[in-house]
Design goal:
heterotrimer; A alpha/beta (278); B mainly alpha (356); C alpha/beta (311); A: 278 residues; alpha/beta; 14 strands; 28% strand
Chain lengths: 278, 356, 311
């Protein structure tokens, strides 16, 4: 339901993204991985329309992105930002309810309030409902934002599939909540939502994504199922580190184990060990 | 009034703790403002008791004298109404600007409108004396306001255009442009002070200090639409303003046309502030302090913040005006100085408490 | 429910108040049936009918002074902050600074007549006073002896004491004539520089077309500064170029800067002939610049200081 064709993003002389294409079908989770500065967030922002594409097209539900009416699009597509700038004293419930904005005509209904509550329960932030957003920890804020984003596309509209875009949804979360968040994304995918997410942790991508897209310096290096994409050679090429890839002992997915050794050289400085491609 | 009726007429859900607090504050302000209006009718250099006020309003002959009646209708009534309008306009504009700039310490004057009006007024005071008003002597009385308003609009237009980048309004750039234009206006006013006569300088000074004393029915009727339209329209944009607090990109994702919103907010606040400054001079801190105080009580939801700001802004200005008329009666203190006297310590307290 | 209920309420509030106003407007402005009134032509050339001068508020120092000189002070019920002579005037209720009057403040004194100059303001307040039924007479305020005469004459007319007014004008003319005869034979006209500081701020020097300029001429002196009109800040170069023989200041300013020594500290003053000879003179503000009934006295006092040998 999301189709990205040959998009290039340039800023001045610098090419942030070069000729990237990908697809996300309804019901699948696609993860974008890569080193810092590889262009992951750029790709996601270009898909949202937040930054201008120098070239290329984006189609949502077979309709050109720029042809979508803003409000109608907001009812089928939700975007979780990497970080939030909200410094005003909204309560957590109010933030979650903001997600229902595209659906509200005049005043919010009881159904809207219920959805906001359910979304907060799903992200395990319901005990924070009356707390003020700026007083929360980073992880709590992220879960609140996720609740808002989920509330936005909680119910399936009649003729459209829904799209969920997540930009590093786990960056401030502890281990348990990282998995809880991605399980939630997986659950939404099982209901027919197309999920496109930027992830840093390869093992999270491996466990929850149907397909993985790997970026390096603005180029799409490879794309496919985690089993196909995660191997020592590709990881060395994209992340410049040694690793061991094996089958997860208990789950049906590959497990990536970095194998970086650091030495202290004769001068007393840290250096990466032999076997690292810089 | 039952709880169900109340919930039906209010623009927000009132079933949470913060929601019920909002209801209490809203209703409290709805009672406070008319009460202050009524008190303002009676208080001043000429004493009119509340009983006499009622008698005059309902035209119960024999309970008041004609001087009181004339005073109430010709002077106090327009003055109180102008105070309500200006206070409401300044507070609502302040709240909107703080939302737009995503900074709770933003002041409506940041987009250059206040200093623009002040500069035009100063130019008119210094150079406008030679203009003849033989054809329309009434125009002379309002000439200052009529000149100040477009001057402020021009300043804001410049700031807005400077803030455009690639066809979109870049809020941080607009903020910087506003600061620069305001600084320019102030320095030009300095030059005008240099070339002005003593009398002109005094006039400029008093105008900038702010006063509701010049309120007449004609001025009120002319000013009212420019303030009422924003005060009524801006609360309709409340949900979009709530969304834009998350960030512009996030607001777009929620379906808000941010470019449209920014343009509407700038135009409406410019109208309200321009009309306020043109009719009553520079009255500071109302736009800054009122929304901030309300956020401490009822949170940041603009759907309740904007109407409450209007009510509290009007109330605050009426209280300041009451003080200005009574402290040194029968003379008057400039109302702008009183709002600053109240506003500055409050503002400092806000800054200090934010740090801790 | 698109419109908030509050807005409906406030619109109704405003509408009802407007209705009250409209009903108030339908009353005719009550006019006492007057059998006689005084018709005075004000400074704009308009005829003003003064029906009742029993309670008068006077705005501006020289106007108040004129009322006292006409022995009509019993009619005064209030003055402004610039009315500092005679001292009795300062004991009256004050309605504020003349350029920033309060309509209510004036009206609280229940005046029937307001005497003011065109400096009184703001214009909206003057309109409010007029529309409240108070007669407002704007007196001429030209800064020359003719202006003083007109001021006295009109004030006297308005207050119904024309005879006393003529007497004052006659006295004024005699004083000016007497001073003139004394200074006519003076050998030279000393150069005088008038310095004024706005409330203790930076000092300004008077050019032409000011009250000070006129007084200097009337007292047999010459304004040392003629390059510009009105006031400009004092600069050392300008002071030295002007080379005044005397530095003249209003008494209040003279005191506030610290007397002669204070004046000598001002930029460039010490280098002028006036500064070197310590010829710093000061005269009471209102006496010097008011152009009211004491104009003759003021000219004489200044002339004495400029031409001591003639007196």
């Amino acid at each position: 339901m999301l189709e990205v064709k040959n998009i290039t993003v340039k800023a001045g002389n610098k090419t942030l993204l070069d000729n990237a294409s990908l697809k996300t079908e309804a019901g699948e989770v696609v993860a974008i991985v890569g080193a810092n500065g590889a262009g992951k967030s750029t790709l996601l922002k270009a898909v949202c329309g937040d930054i201008k594409r120098t070239q290329g097209d984006v189609f949502i539900n077979n309709k050109y992105l720029e042809d979508w009416d803003r409000c109608k699009l907001a009812r089928v597509r939700a975007v979780l930002p990497q970080s939030s700038v909200l410094s005003f004293p909204f309560t957590v419930f109010e933030v979650a309810l903001l997600g229902r904005n595209p659906h509200i005509r005049g005043r919010e209904t009881k159904r809207d309030c219920d959805i906001a509550h359910e979304a907060l329960c799903a992200t395990e932030a319901d005990h924070l409902t009356e707390r003020f957003y700026p007083t929360l920890s980073g992880g709590e804020q992220q879960r609140t934002q996720l609740a808002r984003v989920l509330a936005q596309i909680w119910e399936k509209p009649e003729s459209s599939e829904r799209l969920l875009l997540l930009d590093e949804p786990t960056s401030s979360l502890d281990l348990a909540h990282q998995h809880a968040t991605l399980s939630l994304a997986r659950k939404f995918a099982n209901e027919g939502v197309g999920v496109l997410t930027v992830l840093h942790d390869l093992n999270l991508a491996s466990q929850y994504a149907d397909r993985v897209v790997m970026l390096k310096r603005g180029h799409l290096i490879c794309e496919g199922s985690p089993r196909k994409v995660f191997n020592s050679e590709t990881i060395r090429e994209v992340f410049s580190i040694d690793s061991v890839v094996m089958e997860h002992p208990t789950l049906p997915c590959p497990l990536v184990i970095p194998a970086v050794v650091r030495n202290v050289n004769n001068n007393g400085n840290l250096q990466l060990a032999v076997g690292v491609v810089s | 009034m039952t709880k169900e009726t109340l919930i039906r007429i209010l623009p927000f859900q009132a079933n949470s703790a913060s929601g019920s607090r909002s209801v209490i504050v809203f209703c409290g302000l709805c009672v406070l403002l008319p009460a202050l209006c009524f008190i303002s009718f009676g208080v001043g250099a000429v004493k009119i008791t509340p009983f006499e006020v009622l008698a005059i309003l309902f035209q119960k002959q024999g309970s008041f004298d004609s001087q009181q009646e004339t005073l109430l209708f010709a002077i106090r009534l327009p003055r109180v109404l102008l105070g309500v309008l200006v206070g409401a306009g300044l507070a609502v504009s302040g709240a909107t600007m703080q939302g737009l700039f995503r900074n709770p310490l933003a002041d409506p004057g940041l987009i250059g409108i206040s200093t623009g009006c002040a500069l035009s007024a100063a130019v008119w005071i210094v150079f406008g004396e030679t203009v003849s008003f033989k054809l329309a002597p009434l125009l002379k009385t309002f000439s200052l306001s009529l000149v100040a308003f477009p001057g402020g609009l021009l300043a804001t237009l410049i700031v807005y255009r400077l803030g455009q980048r690639e066809g979109r309004t870049d809020v941080p750039t607009m903020l910087l442009a506003g600061v620069a234009v305001s600084a320019l206006n102030i320095s030009l006013m300095g030059i005008l002070s240099f070339i002005s006569t003593d009398a002109q300088l005094r006039n400029i000074t008093f105008w900038t200090l702010g006063s509701l004393g010049g309120a007449t029915w004609t001025m009120l009727i002319v000013t009212a639409p420019f303030i009422l339209i924003p005060v009524i329209w801006l609360p309709k944009l409340a949900r979009s303003l709530n969304a834009i607090l998350l960030g512009e990109a996030e607001a777009e994702h929620l379906g808000v046309n941010t470019e449209n919103l920014k343009r509407k907010c700038v135009v409406l606040t410019t109208m309200a502030i321009g009309a306020s400054v043109a009719s009553a001079g520079m009255i500071g801190f109302v736009g800054l302090v009122v929304p901030h105080l309300l956020r401490l009580l009822i949170g940041a939801d603009h759907r309740v913040l904007l109407p409450c700001s209007a009510l509290l802004g009007a109330s605050l200005l009426l209280m300041a005006d009451l003080s200005s008329r009574t402290i040194v009666a029968p003379a008057e203190l400039p109302v702008g100085s009183i709002t600053t006297l109240i506003g500055v310590p409050f503002f400092l307290w806000l800054l200090i408490s934010r740090k801790s | 429910m698109k419109l908030l209920l509050l807005k409906k309420i406030s619109l109704i509030f405003l509408a009802s108040l407007t209705l009250f106003f409209v009903s108030a407007c339908r009353r005719q402005a009550s006019s006492n049936s007057i059998s006689k009134y005084v018709s005075v032509v004000d400074s704009d050339g308009k005829e003003v009918a003064i029906t009742d001068s029993s309670r008068v508020v006077s705005i501006s120092g020289s106007v108040t002074e004129t009322v006292y000189a006409l022995s009509a002070e019993s009619k005064l019920v209030g003055t402004d902050t610039s009315s500092i002579y005679p001292e009795a005037a300062t004991k009256l209720p004050q309605v504020g600074y003349m350029r920033q009057l309060s309509a209510e403040g004036v009206l609280s004194l229940k005046p029937t007549l307001v005497l003011a100059t065109k400096d009184a303001g703001p214009p909206a307040v003057i309109e409010q006073l007029k529309s409240s039924g108070v007669t407002v007479l704007i007196l001429p305020s030209e800064t020359n002896p003719e202006g003083a005469r007109k001021k006295i004459k009109l004030t006297a007319q308005a207050l119904g004491v024309e005879a006393k007014g003529d007497e004052l004008i006659k006295k004024l003319d005699e004083q000016i004539k007497e001073t003139n005869s004394k200074i006519e034979t003076a050998k030279s006209k000393p150069r005088v520089m008038f310095v004024y500081a706005r409330g203790g701020g930076a000092p300004n020097v008077s050019g032409t077309k000011t009250a000070a300029d006129e007084m200097i001429r009337l007292a047999g002196g010459v304004n040392a500064v003629t390059e510009y009109e009105n006031y400009k800040p004092l600069t050392p170069e300008a002071a030295v170029t002007a080379a005044p023989d005397f530095i003249l200041l209003p008494k209040l300013v003279f005191d506030s800067v610290g007397g002669t020594d204070g004046v000598l500290k001002m930029p460039g003053i010490a280098l002028t002939p006036a500064g070197k000879n310590r010829r710093i003179i000061a005269i009471d503000d209102l006496l010097l610049l008011g152009f009211g009934p004491r104009t003759g006295e003021g000219i004489k006092e200044l002339a004495k200081l400029l031409h001591p040998e003639q007196f």
